[in-house]
Amino acid sequence: MKLLIKKGRIIDPSQGIDQIGDLLVEEGIIKGIADDIPSDQYTKVFWAEEKWVLPGLVDIHVHLRDPGQEWKEDIETGTKAALYGGVLRVACMPNTVPPNDTPEITSYILKKAEEKGYVKVYPIGCITKGQKGEELTEFGRLKEAGIVAVSDDGKWVANSEVMKRALLYAKQFNLAVISHCEDPTLSQGGQINEGFFSAKLGLKGIPWSAEVAAVVRDLLLAKETGQPVHLAHLSCKEVIPFLRWAKEEDIPFTAETCPHYFSLTEKEVEGYNTLAKVNPPLRKEEDVLAIKEALKEGLIQVIASDHAPHSVLEKEIEFSLAPPGMIGLQTLLPLSLNLVKEGWLNPLKLTECLITNPAKVINVEPPSLKPGKKAEFIVFDPNKTYVLGPDIIQSKSKNTPFLNKELKGITVLAVIGEKIWELNWAV
């Protein structure tokens, strides 16, 4: 079968191209890009005027909640939400129930993803057994089973000696180490950002120092061991000078943020809005600005969703009892698009943050529109305005502060090999 995408804006960070043109696919393989490719009677033609044609997004920070918490999300619904978000590869965090600290859990995730998944799933294994921060998991056996990285996401490995050994151990297996940067001795019991709103609402705050202390410790260990550390979901301005210092010192690291940290402020929690409760917490306007500047400067290289589903019952309770987290797979690209509209990033730099850079972190070849590569791309309409109603959210959970709010930008076509989805959002 032939598929011809006509007159789209083709953006591919793997080739550094941003041009208007046609893209031809035959039998699930990219055949070429040109200004004008003729069609024949056997060709399916998709007109993409004023739309973006991109390799599929790679999201390396996703909670699929499977196994163990399938009432929130499962691999089938999570990967369907990813498909609608234009995310054609997801790396799923290991804080499932039980946690992914054995080859058996990794194999379960991969088997179910093969049977039920819409997009490619890469499991991430635990750094320590049971995420207790004490004893390292068997990195080699986990990698043989299929993990691409290790993390105790949701918890920081507070014991510095254990983290140092984790970095050295990971080096032997060429595994990425992803750190949840939050010193629990400073954040314990915290609900929202420490400051005016925590005082006003009578909620214990989480100070920026909890994030900075963790980041600095991990950067020092990366310098000592020579093994890169990936710093997850950074949120505050105080961490930026240390990233700049680490870059000047040639310390091996990569850093990530999420759309809510450059789109929302702590004001969202007013009225005890549990949908805006996340970890790390939403910060101040100056933090939002600093995160955008760090993306522009290249100190933060990856944008991930931190897709964290929770049921309605779990969120519609007392603020202090509600779990932190919001879904994000379907809003990842629309919210990130604002960085282009506001002039912080051009489309190529944005797609590096969403496609090539995250793929590099987990040591996999990024999706590409180069001739000869497997078709793995989306067509995205950046001008389509719609309301994010619960009926068009594909996740089981609807916990997002963007619920029923107007967004701009929508994935209209997804192609993986010979599978073609023309996505109907009913908007």
UniProtKB/TrEMBL annotation:
Zn(2+) 1 binds at H61, H63, D153, D306. Binds 2 Zn(2+) ions per subunit. Its cofactor is Zn(2+). It catalyses: (S)-dihydroorotate + H2O = N-carbamoyl-L-aspartate + H(+). GO terms for biological process: 'de novo' UMP biosynthetic process; purine nucleobase catabolic process. Gene3D superfamilies: Metal-dependent hydrolases, Urease, subunit C, domain 1. CDD domains: DHOase_IIa (cd01317). The keyword Methyltransferase does not apply. The keyword Zinc applies. Its EC number is 3.5.2.3. PROSITE patterns: DIHYDROOROTASE_1, DIHYDROOROTASE_2. GO terms for cellular component: cytoplasm. Catalyzes the reversible cyclization of carbamoyl aspartate to dihydroorotate. This is Dihydroorotase. It comes from Thermodesulfobacterium commune DSM 2178.
